[in-house]
Amino acid sequence: MAGPPGAAEPAGPGLRRNRNWRLFWLSQSASVTGDIVFDTSMLLWVARIIALNQPWAPAAAGGVLVAAALPALVLGPFAGVFVDRWNRRRTMLAADAARAVLVVALIPLAFPPVAAHVPRLAELGIVYLLVAAAASFSQFFNPSRFAMLGAIVAEPDVPRASGHLMSSMYAASIIGPPLAAPLLFTAGVQWALVINALSFGGSFLGIWLIQVPSAPAAEGTGIEAAPAAPAGYWRELGAGLRFFGTSPVLVAVTVGLFVTVLGAGALNALNVFFVQADLHASATLYGTIGMAEGIGGLAGTMAAGRVIARAGAGRTFWVGLVLSGLAVVCYSLMSSLVAALAVTAVLGVVLGCVNTAISPLLLAATPQHMIGRVTSVLTPAASVAAIASTAAAGVLASTVLRGFRATLAGVTFGPYGTVIAVGGLLFVAAGLAAMIPLRRAAASGPAGGHGRDKPAVAKLRRHHGSAPQADGLVDRK
Hints:
Layout: H1 19-50, H2 57-85, H3 88-106, H4 112-115, H5 120-152, H6 158-186, H7 190-209, H8 233-245, H9 248-277, H10 287-311, H11 313-332, H12 337-365, H13 371-398, E1 406-408, E2 411-413, H14 415-444
Antiparallel strand pairs: 1-2
Helix pairs in contact: 1-2, 1-5, 1-6, 1-7, 2-5, 2-9, 2-13, 3-5, 3-7, 5-13, 6-10, 6-12, 9-12, 9-13, 9-14, 10-11, 10-12, 11-12, 11-14
């Protein structure tokens, strides 16, 4: 899979003059747009077509998110070591090609004449299986992308690159969800699948055109030197775990993300039902929630550089989680779509700052040769939280809380709003849990006492984020 001929472009300062960065940014911007259309369409497909009018519809919709998160738990701990061994560019190319094929394999099921001959539960099983298979390849793609960015972007440009990538994600959030819902209900889900397959093709092309510098560079450039010979899988994994456990920044970010994803999973699983039952809006308007968050997130990423410069990345992270949790609780109290959109836009602003702050935190704490193994801890932790929260939210809303109504201080809570409010409180708890270790790390110096690895350090966390949806905190791929 060798790229086109020509000398590799050095990761010199200045994003505008960095051809590799431009190709990377364009390809990943196209990819995340396709992903957002795909994610929204999958939830609506299951909730409003496959499981239409079924009492188990919330659990079925949550199953899509569980299927996407489970591979991170199963493969995440093993993938990291191999990502640190393999050629990362080739790993990304292979993963993009495989995911495009898997998405195309779902297209026949989207046509009613085919779906009519497939039992409903079997149809759900096929959707879950192919979503899980695509997510399995993402376990190798995401840390490889993390590492590649560290090799093609010079250290002084990393914060700006992080902001640009997050801005692209939120811009896609503005475009994607409003496009996905009408597209599904008018043209059919097959078009969302086609868009996502094409987005993987665009990502493949952009990565193929990138020339990754291979020669060792001077200290501080962030260019990856040739890896050492493998020392054995378990010894390499153990070294990564020991490094992770001694970094207060990595531990604090992981704990914060774990608890946050617990809350975000409930919101993701039940939001389509909340829009209809509590906000009294049509399912076709579900995409406007993502659009509002995207608008707010775009504003947040634009302001994040100044916020982080004044407050520091650690403080921006934990304070932002507390504020975003309060915004989610306010969202759960809304009874009209207009008010909910306003609150969601504010939530997006805060999360834009939080997601941008994660990159500098991990940048200072993770050496380049440890990226895969660090993500082998971060990714499964987020996966456990996502699986637990989405499964619990769907089951509770479908069983114990079905028909639930409670009034507190004049405010009526239904089953969906109640679960979402608890999710918001988990955001607050995540911020408070991360506060003390991040404050101590900031006081002890760069990287929480570790300092930068020499000669190279990792530049960014994995693709949008994440993270971990709240969009940047739950990885889309």
